[in-house]
Amino acid sequence: MPTVSTAYLANLINGCVALGAPPDNLHALVPGGQDALFQPDRRIPAEVTAQVLNAAAELTGIDSIGLRVGMQFRPATFLDIGYALAAASTIREALEINMRYQPLTQEAARTRLEVDRKEARILLDPAFADAEDFRRVTEAILAGYASIGRWLLWDQVRPVAAVQFRHSRPSEETCRFYASIFGDTVSFDGPVDMMVIDATLVSRPLPNSNPALVQLLTGRLNARLAAYQAGSSLRMLVISGLHRQIRQGKPNLDETARLLGMSGRTLRRRLQAEELSYSELLVATRKEAAEVYMHEDKMTLAEIAGLLGYGDQTAFMRAFRGWFGMSPGAYRDKLKRAGG
Fold it and tell me: Do residues 143 and 124 make contact, with C-beta atoms less than 8 angstroms apart?
């Protein structure tokens, strides 16, 4: 059964709520309710994405809600995958990263890329045959590609050449919104869901290219994909939970256990059985996050220390030197010399 991550579904729900949908009605559609969305190890049936968007459209009267939610997508929406997209050298590399690690976020539709001399086609292979019921999910995904594509390219006001949908022509309100995102060349009742862009854009260098960061993140993503395909390990589950907590304050074991759907006592017992230390996993998570943040030149060391949950910059600098054998300033200088 195809599934989506709780983080992906939560982003869809939050987008709908921002547009006026009552949160309680949408959470009622999620197996396990709202609490399930805070469990990083939990996967939700992919069909719930369609149920949520269709219910939100009915509750708000906004037929184009899938498009509007998709337009809110940014690389940061997808955490490590998004950071890797933002650091890619070209649109092709960004799409290939997304295609490779897509199962970590959602299996509602898989993406393929076809390129010839004139055009590049981003095609969706949906998990569900009912194009009408699944319509708003498809719209959200393709609107997300358009939104993130503009963000990555910067100078492209409307890089989309054409869009084709399997579903029939929807309401005029939605069609007007199509035009604002995709332009005038939108067709319906087609054999596939597809976005077309100019072939030259696929290989155009991106302004935020950072090969060193891509290498770091894809190595991490390879481990997470392998763990997901094998049935996630406890270590990966705890680290995933810690990453979700770390920006909201100092994590603690009981809160991590709650996110994983177990008691603190159970998590302690399972960690002990696998000879894992919660404090060591927290340190490993902070180190992972610090490696990413250090590539962001606009972030000050004080800001990074705060995001990692350190009460003062001195404690962060001491920890950083223990991780990498040099000060944060020297590490950033090394990155600049390496072009990363």
Answer: no
Question: For residue 292, what are the CA distances in angstroms to 99, 144, 288?
Answer: 21, 23, 7
In angstroms, the Cα distances linking 165 to 106, 135, 142, 162, 181 are 20, 8, 10, 10, 14
**One-letter-per-residue 3-state SS of 121-176:** EEEEEECCCCCCCCHHHHHHHHHHHHHHHHHHHCCCCCCEEEEECCCCCCCHHHHH
Angle at 323 between CA 319 and CA 326, to 5 degrees: 85
- 88 to each of 123, 201, 238, how far by Cα in Å? 20, 14, 28
| Neighbour tally for 110: CB within 10 Å | 15
Distance in angstroms (rounded) separating the CA atoms of residues 304 and 88: 23
CATH of 3-202, one of 3.90.1520.10, 2.60.40.1940, 3.40.50.2300, 3.40.640.10: 3.90.1520.10
Domains in the chain: boundaries: 3-202, 233-337
The answer to whether the beta carbons of residues 50 and 7 sit under 8 Å apart is no
Q: Is the pLDDT of residue 186 over 70?
A: yes
Cα separation of 33 and 17, whole Å? 15
What CATH homologous superfamily does 233-337 map to? Homeodomain-like (1.10.10.60)
- Taking only Cα atoms into account, the Rg of the chain, rounded to an integer number of angstroms, comes to 21
Q: What is the DSSP letter of 88?
A: -
- In the numeric block, the tokens 């919660």 are attached to 278
Residue 267: name the closest of 284, 252, 285 by CA.
252
Rounded CA separation 31/129 (Å): 22
Q: Amino acid identity of 14?
A: N
Q: Tokens representing 289?
A: 């996050």
Whole-prediction pTM: 0.74
Task: Give the model confidence (pLDDT) of 41-96 as tens digits.
Answer: 688 999 999 999 999 999 999 999 999 999 988 766 666 888 898 899 998 998 89
DSSP symbol at 113: E
